Amino acid sequence: MDDNQWRGAGDRIDTLLDACSAGGPVARGRAERLVREVVDLYGAAFGRIVAGLDDRIVEELTRDDLVASLLLVHGLHPHDVRTRVATALDSVRPYLGSHGGDVTLIDVADGVVRLELSGSCRTCPSSSVTLELAVEDAVRAAAPEIEAIEVVAAAAQPQAGVIPADALFARVHTADPPAGSWISVPELADLAAGEVGGFTVADVPVLACRVGADLFVYRDRCAACGRSMAGAALHRRMGAPADSAVLRCPGCLAHFDVVHAGTRLDGEGHLEPLPVLVRSGEISVAVPAEVRG
To answer: Which residue intervals define the domain Rieske in the entry (predicted)?
Structure first.
Protein backbone atom coordinates (compact mmCIF):
# COMPACT_ATOMS: atom_id res chain seq x y z
CA MET A 1 0.00 0.00 0.00
CA ASP A 2 1.52 3.31 -1.08
CA ASP A 3 1.12 6.64 0.70
CA ASN A 4 -1.86 7.76 -1.38
CA GLN A 5 -3.70 4.53 -0.61
CA TRP A 6 -3.29 4.54 3.15
CA ARG A 7 -3.96 8.27 3.45
CA GLY A 8 -7.38 7.66 1.92
CA ALA A 9 -8.14 4.61 4.07
CA GLY A 10 -10.24 6.63 6.54
CA ASP A 11 -12.44 8.00 3.77
CA ARG A 12 -12.92 4.53 2.29
CA ILE A 13 -13.94 3.14 5.68
CA ASP A 14 -16.50 5.94 6.12
CA THR A 15 -17.87 5.24 2.63
CA LEU A 16 -18.30 1.54 3.44
CA LEU A 17 -20.02 2.38 6.74
CA ASP A 18 -22.38 4.74 4.94
CA ALA A 19 -23.17 1.95 2.48
CA CYS A 20 -24.07 -0.30 5.42
CA SER A 21 -26.63 2.30 6.47
CA ALA A 22 -28.75 1.18 3.53
CA GLY A 23 -29.53 -1.94 5.55
CA GLY A 24 -30.90 0.16 8.40
CA PRO A 25 -29.55 1.31 11.79
CA VAL A 26 -28.95 -2.25 12.99
CA ALA A 27 -26.71 -3.04 10.02
CA ARG A 28 -24.85 0.25 10.48
CA GLY A 29 -24.33 -0.47 14.16
CA ARG A 30 -22.95 -3.93 13.44
CA ALA A 31 -20.54 -2.52 10.86
CA GLU A 32 -19.25 0.11 13.29
CA ARG A 33 -18.87 -2.54 16.00
CA LEU A 34 -16.90 -4.73 13.57
CA VAL A 35 -14.52 -1.85 12.78
CA ARG A 36 -14.00 -1.15 16.49
CA GLU A 37 -13.27 -4.82 17.21
CA VAL A 38 -10.65 -5.00 14.44
CA VAL A 39 -9.04 -1.70 15.50
CA ASP A 40 -8.92 -2.78 19.15
CA LEU A 41 -7.44 -6.16 18.22
CA TYR A 42 -4.63 -4.69 16.13
CA GLY A 43 -4.14 -1.95 18.70
CA ALA A 44 -3.59 -4.46 21.47
CA ALA A 45 -1.02 -6.34 19.38
CA PHE A 46 0.65 -3.10 18.32
CA GLY A 47 0.88 -2.02 21.95
CA ARG A 48 2.72 -5.21 22.92
CA ILE A 49 5.17 -4.75 20.04
CA VAL A 50 5.91 -1.15 21.02
CA ALA A 51 6.34 -2.11 24.67
CA GLY A 52 9.12 -4.50 23.68
CA LEU A 53 11.09 -1.89 21.74
CA ASP A 54 13.67 0.50 23.16
CA ASP A 55 13.07 4.24 23.05
CA ARG A 56 15.49 4.80 20.16
CA ILE A 57 13.61 2.46 17.85
CA VAL A 58 10.24 3.92 18.82
CA GLU A 59 11.62 7.37 18.07
CA GLU A 60 12.68 6.16 14.62
CA LEU A 61 9.21 4.73 14.00
CA THR A 62 7.55 8.07 14.72
CA ARG A 63 9.31 9.55 11.67
CA ASP A 64 7.19 7.42 9.36
CA ASP A 65 3.81 9.07 8.76
CA LEU A 66 1.85 5.81 8.56
CA VAL A 67 3.35 4.29 11.70
CA ALA A 68 3.03 7.61 13.55
CA SER A 69 -0.66 7.82 12.64
CA LEU A 70 -1.29 4.32 14.02
CA LEU A 71 0.61 5.16 17.20
CA LEU A 72 -1.68 8.17 17.61
CA VAL A 73 -4.85 6.16 16.97
CA HIS A 74 -3.95 3.68 19.70
CA GLY A 75 -2.57 6.21 22.18
CA LEU A 76 0.96 4.86 21.86
CA HIS A 77 2.78 7.87 20.47
CA PRO A 78 5.66 8.80 22.80
CA HIS A 79 5.30 12.57 22.27
CA ASP A 80 2.59 14.84 23.64
CA VAL A 81 0.61 17.10 21.32
CA ARG A 82 2.72 20.20 21.98
CA THR A 83 5.95 18.37 21.12
CA ARG A 84 4.42 16.97 17.93
CA VAL A 85 3.16 20.39 16.83
CA ALA A 86 6.55 21.99 17.56
CA THR A 87 8.31 19.32 15.50
CA ALA A 88 5.87 19.83 12.65
CA LEU A 89 6.54 23.57 12.64
CA ASP A 90 10.29 22.91 12.55
CA SER A 91 9.76 20.88 9.38
CA VAL A 92 8.12 23.80 7.54
CA ARG A 93 10.22 26.61 9.03
CA PRO A 94 12.85 26.49 6.25
CA TYR A 95 10.07 26.97 3.69
CA LEU A 96 8.59 29.92 5.61
CA GLY A 97 12.09 31.34 5.88
CA SER A 98 12.36 31.34 2.10
CA HIS A 99 9.43 33.78 2.17
CA GLY A 100 11.12 35.97 4.77
CA GLY A 101 8.80 34.77 7.51
CA ASP A 102 8.74 32.57 10.58
CA VAL A 103 6.23 30.91 12.88
CA THR A 104 6.25 30.51 16.66
CA LEU A 105 4.15 28.13 18.71
CA ILE A 106 2.42 30.14 21.44
CA ASP A 107 0.24 27.53 23.07
CA VAL A 108 -1.70 24.31 22.65
CA ALA A 109 -4.75 24.14 24.88
CA ASP A 110 -8.27 22.71 24.72
CA GLY A 111 -7.72 21.37 21.22
CA VAL A 112 -6.60 24.72 19.83
CA VAL A 113 -3.12 25.47 18.47
CA ARG A 114 -2.14 29.14 18.67
CA LEU A 115 0.65 30.35 16.38
CA GLU A 116 2.41 33.68 15.86
CA LEU A 117 3.65 34.75 12.45
CA SER A 118 6.60 37.09 12.16
CA GLY A 119 8.68 38.59 9.39
CA SER A 120 7.40 39.44 5.96
CA CYS A 121 6.27 37.35 3.04
CA ARG A 122 7.36 39.06 -0.13
CA THR A 123 4.72 37.42 -2.27
CA CYS A 124 1.22 38.13 -3.56
CA PRO A 125 -1.84 36.78 -1.69
CA SER A 126 -2.13 33.87 -4.14
CA SER A 127 1.04 32.27 -2.77
CA SER A 128 -0.34 32.51 0.77
CA VAL A 129 -2.33 29.41 -0.13
CA THR A 130 0.91 27.47 -0.51
CA LEU A 131 2.07 28.63 2.93
CA GLU A 132 -1.27 27.60 4.37
CA LEU A 133 -0.96 24.17 2.80
CA ALA A 134 2.50 23.67 4.26
CA VAL A 135 1.73 24.83 7.81
CA GLU A 136 -1.73 23.41 8.31
CA ASP A 137 -0.97 20.09 6.66
CA ALA A 138 2.15 19.59 8.78
CA VAL A 139 0.37 20.53 12.02
CA ARG A 140 -2.75 18.46 11.40
CA ALA A 141 -0.74 15.43 10.27
CA ALA A 142 1.31 15.55 13.48
CA ALA A 143 -1.67 16.26 15.76
CA PRO A 144 -4.95 15.11 14.16
CA GLU A 145 -6.73 15.52 17.48
CA ILE A 146 -6.55 19.34 17.38
CA GLU A 147 -9.79 21.15 16.65
CA ALA A 148 -8.59 24.52 15.37
CA ILE A 149 -5.55 26.62 14.47
CA GLU A 150 -5.50 30.26 15.56
CA VAL A 151 -2.92 32.68 14.19
CA VAL A 152 -1.84 36.07 15.53
CA ALA A 153 0.57 38.46 13.86
CA ALA A 154 3.75 39.46 15.67
CA ALA A 155 3.71 42.98 17.08
CA ALA A 156 5.53 44.94 14.42
CA GLN A 157 4.96 47.78 12.01
CA PRO A 158 3.46 46.58 8.74
CA GLN A 159 5.77 46.62 5.73
CA ALA A 160 5.01 47.02 2.07
CA GLY A 161 4.11 43.73 0.48
CA VAL A 162 3.50 41.92 3.79
CA ILE A 163 0.60 39.48 3.73
CA PRO A 164 -1.65 40.06 6.79
CA ALA A 165 -1.94 37.06 9.07
CA ASP A 166 -5.71 36.99 8.73
CA ALA A 167 -5.37 36.80 4.96
CA LEU A 168 -2.59 34.24 5.12
CA PHE A 169 -4.67 31.85 7.19
CA ALA A 170 -8.12 32.85 5.97
CA ARG A 171 -8.98 29.23 5.21
CA VAL A 172 -7.50 27.86 8.40
CA HIS A 173 -10.20 29.67 10.37
CA THR A 174 -12.89 27.72 8.48
CA ALA A 175 -13.83 24.10 8.87
CA ASP A 176 -12.88 23.24 5.30
CA PRO A 177 -9.41 21.82 4.57
CA PRO A 178 -7.19 23.74 2.18
CA ALA A 179 -7.73 22.92 -1.48
CA GLY A 180 -4.73 21.14 -2.85
CA SER A 181 -2.78 17.92 -2.99
CA TRP A 182 0.60 16.71 -1.81
CA ILE A 183 2.32 14.81 -4.59
CA SER A 184 5.35 12.62 -4.00
CA VAL A 185 8.22 13.59 -6.34
CA PRO A 186 11.20 11.44 -5.28
CA GLU A 187 13.12 12.50 -8.41
CA LEU A 188 13.79 15.88 -6.80
CA ALA A 189 16.25 14.20 -4.45
CA ASP A 190 18.57 13.66 -7.43
CA LEU A 191 19.06 17.40 -8.04
CA ALA A 192 22.62 18.48 -7.28
CA ALA A 193 23.52 21.81 -5.66
CA GLY A 194 23.21 24.62 -8.20
CA GLU A 195 21.10 22.52 -10.56
CA VAL A 196 17.71 23.42 -12.06
CA GLY A 197 15.33 20.71 -13.29
CA GLY A 198 11.98 20.68 -15.01
CA PHE A 199 9.27 18.30 -13.76
CA THR A 200 5.54 17.71 -14.15
CA VAL A 201 3.66 17.43 -10.86
CA ALA A 202 -0.08 16.63 -11.05
CA ASP A 203 -0.03 17.79 -14.70
CA VAL A 204 1.54 21.10 -13.64
CA PRO A 205 4.97 21.99 -15.14
CA VAL A 206 7.35 23.08 -12.39
CA LEU A 207 10.98 24.13 -11.98
CA ALA A 208 12.96 22.76 -9.05
CA CYS A 209 16.17 24.48 -7.91
CA ARG A 210 18.75 23.20 -5.44
CA VAL A 211 20.57 25.97 -3.56
CA GLY A 212 23.09 24.34 -1.24
CA ALA A 213 21.10 21.77 0.72
CA ASP A 214 17.79 23.60 0.22
CA LEU A 215 15.23 22.77 -2.43
CA PHE A 216 12.87 25.33 -3.98
CA VAL A 217 10.03 24.58 -6.40
CA TYR A 218 8.19 27.07 -8.61
CA ARG A 219 5.51 26.84 -11.25
CA ASP A 220 7.21 26.88 -14.64
CA ARG A 221 5.90 30.22 -15.82
CA CYS A 222 7.87 33.45 -16.05
CA ALA A 223 6.21 36.31 -14.15
CA ALA A 224 7.49 38.77 -16.75
CA CYS A 225 6.75 37.19 -20.14
CA GLY A 226 4.39 34.38 -19.12
CA ARG A 227 6.38 31.74 -21.00
CA SER A 228 8.05 28.56 -19.79
CA MET A 229 11.45 28.98 -18.15
CA ALA A 230 12.75 25.66 -19.44
CA GLY A 231 16.51 25.92 -19.82
CA ALA A 232 16.93 28.50 -17.05
CA ALA A 233 20.06 28.30 -14.90
CA LEU A 234 21.05 29.56 -11.46
CA HIS A 235 23.41 32.53 -11.11
CA ARG A 236 24.87 34.47 -8.18
CA ARG A 237 25.11 38.24 -8.36
CA MET A 238 28.51 39.77 -7.70
CA GLY A 239 28.89 40.61 -4.02
CA ALA A 240 25.78 38.62 -3.02
CA PRO A 241 25.89 36.08 -0.14
CA ALA A 242 27.02 32.56 -1.00
CA ASP A 243 23.56 31.14 -0.30
CA SER A 244 21.82 33.54 -2.70
CA ALA A 245 20.67 32.43 -6.15
CA VAL A 246 19.15 34.14 -9.15
CA LEU A 247 17.07 32.39 -11.78
CA ARG A 248 17.11 34.09 -15.19
CA CYS A 249 14.34 33.55 -17.72
CA PRO A 250 15.98 32.34 -20.95
CA GLY A 251 13.28 34.11 -22.97
CA CYS A 252 12.99 37.67 -21.62
CA LEU A 253 16.07 37.59 -19.31
CA ALA A 254 14.05 38.68 -16.25
CA HIS A 255 15.84 37.87 -12.95
CA PHE A 256 14.18 36.23 -9.93
CA ASP A 257 15.42 35.63 -6.36
CA VAL A 258 15.07 31.86 -5.87
CA VAL A 259 15.67 31.88 -2.12
CA HIS A 260 13.13 34.62 -1.36
CA ALA A 261 9.85 33.42 -2.88
CA GLY A 262 10.87 34.08 -6.47
CA THR A 263 10.75 37.87 -6.15
CA ARG A 264 11.69 39.62 -9.38
CA LEU A 265 14.90 41.62 -9.01
CA ASP A 266 14.61 43.84 -12.07
CA GLY A 267 10.93 44.72 -12.12
CA GLU A 268 7.51 43.93 -10.66
CA GLY A 269 6.14 40.45 -9.98
CA HIS A 270 7.47 37.12 -8.76
CA LEU A 271 7.39 33.43 -9.57
CA GLU A 272 4.70 31.20 -8.05
CA PRO A 273 6.27 29.07 -5.27
CA LEU A 274 5.02 25.62 -4.30
CA PRO A 275 5.73 24.18 -0.83
CA VAL A 276 8.13 21.26 -0.47
CA LEU A 277 8.19 18.83 2.46
CA VAL A 278 9.65 15.41 3.19
CA ARG A 279 6.67 13.13 3.87
CA SER A 280 7.18 9.48 4.79
CA GLY A 281 10.78 9.78 3.70
CA GLU A 282 9.95 11.11 0.21
CA ILE A 283 10.11 14.67 -1.10
CA SER A 284 6.58 15.91 -1.81
CA VAL A 285 5.26 19.06 -3.48
CA ALA A 286 1.90 20.69 -2.67
CA VAL A 287 -0.07 21.81 -5.71
CA PRO A 288 -3.01 24.09 -4.79
CA ALA A 289 -6.27 23.46 -6.63
CA GLU A 290 -6.11 26.98 -8.06
CA VAL A 291 -2.82 26.14 -9.79
CA ARG A 292 -4.06 22.77 -11.00
CA GLY A 293 -7.17 24.41 -12.39
So the answer is: 183-285
